[in-house]
Each structure stands twice: as C-alpha cells, then as structure tokens.
Amino acid sequence: EAYGNYNDSTYSVVPEFEQTLADVLDVTPDFLRTSQSRLLNAGMRWGSLRPAWTAWRLPSGSFELQETRQFNRSDFFDRAEEKAAALNLMLFQNSQSDSSAAVWDVNLAARGGVENHESDTTARVSSQFVTTGADIRCSQPVPMLLQTVTGPASMTFDMSARVTRNLDNDREALNRSGVSLTAGTTVQGNEWSARAATTIYSYEDAGTATRTSASFERRMSANWWAGVEAALTTRSSTDSHGSPSTEGAILFTCRHDFSIPIPWLPRRAQATGRVFDDVNNNGRFDPGETALAGVKVAAGTAQALTDANGDFTLPAMADGKYPITITPPPEVHYTETTGANAKELQLRKGEVTRVAFGLVKPTACEGRLVMAKAKNEDAEILKAIHQDAKEDLAGFEIVATDAKGRQQRGFTRADGFFSLYLEPGVYDVAIDNATLKSQQSVSPARLTVNVGQTQIDDLQFTVSDAQRKIRRTFTAQAQ
User: How far, in Å, CA of 153 to CA of 150, rounded?
Assistant: First the structure.
C-alpha cells in the first residue's frame, strides 16, 4: 500500500509566562521568538503472508522518501534541511498463526541522503550521509498473572542499532558519524498502549548521550486517542557551569485515525493460519505441539491444504462471515478441538486475518462383549440343543458420554469386539438397552473411563440371558 504523512508546525520557543528576567531584557523582537518545522514522508510498504524459504521471495518491507525542514527564528535564523530515502527489509518473520505464541522478526534498514544547515555565524554547509542498521523484535501475550490487571494485551521487546557515516566529515550535521543503540518495551492493549525505551548515542568528538523516554496513550472514542510523552536526555559534555548537559520535555498528544476509500483501488480480505495437533485439547498452539500437513481448510467455497509446516493461506475474498470446515486426511483419526475452534471466520476488508485450528487425535478405547455361561443344571441340555453353534454378538450399540453430555457411539462385531475413538476426558460407557433382547441384561450397567493419550483395551461387558425353562420329555418303550 502507498502512504504519506505531512506535518507543518509553528510554535513559540519561550512562552511569555515562562520568560526569565534575561528574556524580558532581551531586545529581540517577539516575532523572532518562534520556530517552524515541516516534516514530509511518503512511500510504499508491502508484506509477505508467510515465509517460503524453499524459493526466493520478496521480503516484507517499505521504501520511503523523506524531507525535513527546520527554521529557528529565535536562534539567529538557524536553518536545517534534509532529503533522504529509506529502505527497510524484514528478512525473517517467525509469524505464528496462534495468538498465544511468541512472534519475532529481524529487520535490516538503510538510509541515505543530503543534509544542509546554516546559522548566523556559519555559512551554508551541505553534506551527504549513509545510515545502516538492524532491528530485532519479539512480541508475545502478557503473562496470565498480569492479565488480571492489564486485561488481554501483548508485550513487545525491541532492540535496534544504527551506524551513521557522514561522507563529508561534517561534525556539526545532525547526521554526523556515530552509532546509536536502542532498547524498549511496549505493552499494547485493546484500548491503551504504554512504552518505555532507552537510547545511547555516541558521535565523533561529541562524547556519549543517553535518552530515556516513556509514553502512555488511551483510546477516547472509536477513532480518537489521547496521551502523554516524556523524555530526558543527558549528555557527557558539560554546559557553561561545568555540569552535565540535561534536557527534559513532556508532551500531550492527540491522534485521530481515519481512512480515505479509493473507488478504483478495491481492497479484499484474506485469511492465513495453521492447523496443529492439540495434544492437551486446550485450543492453543503450545510449545511441543506439532503442525499437521494435508488438512483441508474451507471457508465458504474457498479451500486450501496445509503444507508440511501446517500452514495454509486462503485466496482473497470479500469481507464478511464464512462458515469454517476442517477436514483431516481420511487415513488419520483426528477430530476438532472440543469447543475451542471457531465455527465462523470473520474477514475484514484490507486485513489479513490469522487463525489457528487445533485437531485432537482420539485415543482408541477397545473392549469385548461376552455372553454369560449357563449356570443351571440344564447347561448340558442347552449345549446339546445349540450343538456348539457360536453366538452372534454383532449389533450391540456402545455409547460413551462425556461430562457435557456429548456422545460417541460404536457397534460390536460378531465376536463381541468393539472400539471407540475418544478425546481426552472422563466418559461413562454403557450398552444401549434398546439393542438388548427382552430377556437379556448387561453387567456392569456402565463403566467410568478416564481417557488420556494411552490406548485402553480392557473394557468388558457381560450379557446374560434369563434362565430358560427346559421341558423334559420321556418316552416309554414296551418290553
């Protein structure tokens, strides 16, 4: 997408109510006690939905043209101008599809341009500069212990380094030769954000300087934000009194977010994510859990298959709500995570929605149904009647019910064997009485089974027939 920012400001350097005695006695006209600045930057940024290290790809990044002008009337007409171009390339993105996982990336930056500055005692000086550097960022959800205070929020740690080389060796330039290191932490909630950072600068023949800053911003309405920023800069060089030079500032900020629709530039929505083996059945992609390949993900009529890393990307679609269907390979026994997966996907125009779907590998629970042996005195007669015919035990329905009342069903084979594939949890397993004959009973009436990751193969039910009355017939033979 293309973007542009413009900021033109005029402000009073020494407000009248803050003037010292020296300011009052100063003969400089009030109209000179102002400064002006203008900042302009425009460019384009692009993103890659997911890394593809097996083939070349254009990394996510941005290219920007920048122009800065500053005019300080109160300091004898100091002027500074800068024109530069900046390129950022995000070479690596560890973008997890699950919001509970850590996300980190590495960015390389390059910037170069021309700077002009002059004052009442210094003629106009023009110099060229080049700046290179790298950024590392890691973002993860706020720990559960802190979420009771912050609510749902993410915490981001970032570090950056910059090396600047002034090609004309201009030691008065803003972009003079030196290095800088920055480390910061940002906590971002749904309605607020807070940041704290420290930067160390070191320039040729200028010693070092440390800048510590903090900011807090809160949403006041749908698109309006208000906040406060504070910064303190300490330099190793001393002032006219021999003390380290220190500067501080506090700013109150206000921001309004808005978008300008462009009719001839349609924007669509897209979804990308991951399907994984949810071993603990909690609906989150936790460390140690593996991704699943070959799973079909469908949103409405759009479909995609997960790759070897379990990742998928659906084609661009119009914004709206779409029903989700997850279909694992037919040769693998997997079911969707219990009650955790969304049945509907919400897509928004111009956004890439990242989702994660967990599948659970059910545990095989096997057992056998047996017929009770006859215990009455006519057992031998019954055996003779059946003439060793084998009992057909097929068709008995086995029902497993979990704590929420959900049921899984299976049927016995002719030899009485049955199997159920159940997700981890506690189940009541019983035989459906509707499949028993009128003279039959089952023992035990139900079994309580705690299903984990280990196969269960010792389930057993015994079906008994009511004792049959045997009529004995005797035939008398004449002697």
Answer: 7
> Quick one: CA torsion of 33, 35, 36, 39, rounded to 10 degrees?
-170
Separation CA 133–CA 175 (nearest Å): 14
Helix and strand totals (H; E) in the chain:
3, 28
Strand segments, DSSP code E, in 205-286 are 207-219, 224-238, 244-256, 270-277
- Nearest by Cα to 168 from 235, 132, 120, 117: 117
Give residue 230's Cα distance to chain centre.
30
Run of H or E residues at 90: strand 78-94
Q: Indicate the pairing of strand 207-219 with strand 407-411.
A: unpaired
d(C-alpha 420, C-alpha 365), whole Å: 5
Give the Cα-Cα-Cα angle 134, 136, 141 (nearest 5 degrees).
Answer: 160
Torsion of CA 81, 177, 163, 84, to 10 degrees: 20
To the question of pTM greater than 0.70 for the whole model, the response is: no
**Nearest Cα residue to 217 out of 257, 184, 189:** 189
Structure tokens given for 104: 């980190």
**pLDDT tens-digit readout, 172-225:** 888 889 999 999 999 988 888 999 999 998 988 777 889 999 999 999 988 899
Q: What is the DSSP letter of 301?
A: T
Q: What are residue 22's phi and psi, to 5 degrees?
A: -65, -35
Sequence-distant (6+) residues with CB within 8 A of 385 are none
